Structure formats: C-alpha cells, structure tokens
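From the thread on structure requests for the teaching lab: each student submitted one protein with a one-line request. Submission from student K.M.:

"Model Phosphatidylinositol N-acetylglucosaminyltransferase subunit H from Papilio xuthus, tokens only."
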Amino acid sequence: MVDIRQVDDHENVNGVNLSLKIETRTNTPNTKIFTISFKNKERKAHWPKLSLILAIIFNILSFVYVRISVNTLLVIIIVLLFLVFFWITYSVQSESIIVIPTVGIQSTTKYVFGRVDVFVPWSNIDDIVINEVIKLNRVLYYLTLLVKSGPNQSSQESDGIKLMPLFKYTKPRLVLLEIIYSEFQTLLMGAQRDGVQSGSGDIE
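Reply posted by the TA:
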C-alpha cells in the first residue's frame, strides 16, 4: 500500500517556491520517500534562455563598437555558450531521500540530464540532526545525517562521525526540515523498537 502526502506553499531560503512530497510504502520494511522539488520550474527554465539572448546581443554590440576581431568574438561566443549549457545541464530539479529501515538511506539529486545517488548502509547511520549554519549575514538550517566513518563502522568504536547534509541544493526552510526530521525519527525509533541498531545517537 502506498500513501502520498503533499506539502505545498513553502519557500526556500532564496524565496523560491518548493513542494514536499512524502510517499509512504507500508510493505516490509516500512519505507518513506521524501522529495523536495521546485514548483516554478517554468521560471527557472526562462533564465538560461534570457542569458543566452543577452550574451548574443552583448557580443554583437562589442563587435560593432569595439571592433574586435572575428576570432576573438567566436571565442567569446563559444565560452558563453558552454557556460549556459553547463548551467542548464547541472541545474538541480529536485532532491529526494529514500529511507528503508534495516537497509539504508539513499540520497538522490536529480538534474536536467541525469542524477546522482549516494547510498548509506543502515549500520553506518549514527543519527540525524538539524544543523544550524551561519553564512554571511544569514542563519541557515540543514538536515544533516551523522555517518560513522573509519574502518570500524559496524562497531561502536568508529574513528569519527562524518556530516552528510541533505537537501543542500533546494535549501528548504526550517518548517519543511522539521516535518522530515519528525518522520525520520519515527522510523529510527521503530527500528530501535524492533531491535535494529542504527548507531549510537540518542533517540527519545
């Protein structure tokens, strides 16, 4: 059985509208999928085209008034086209995490072309926290996974803890992070209740 819950009308730290979808699969083991995506994709897709048009106009004016050589103009156009192509290709569309108790967590970043997946085994997960970061004159919040690092990851004597930020590209505000954090802690407590150790983190 699959239960889908949609949370809309929230902005990220930059004022861009976000949509949170929570998908619950009640089969064994209980699985939750959290997906944060941009709602105004049409506005995001408009800016690369506008940038390309402005770049072409700028190069034409430079060629007419500055009288630069044709070779220099071609180099500038090629570089600008490459930058626009790189921007469009690596523009993040959505981020999601799949939480499967006793198995692990998979973080997925979806781009215009392709995706990047990072998997963390359940035995390496120590805890999950909402981390506060001061960046310039702003206070940002990140949902951070505490992952045991070092050769003794499966034991309590790990060499250290590695921080793995989640949703670092969509940058949701605290209210959305608290929703995901609450659901995640419910899964952790359920796994602990069933006798599955996720790590040394404190779970209340």
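TA comment: The chain has two domains: 2-40+93-198, 46-90. The first strand starts at residue 2 and ends at 11.
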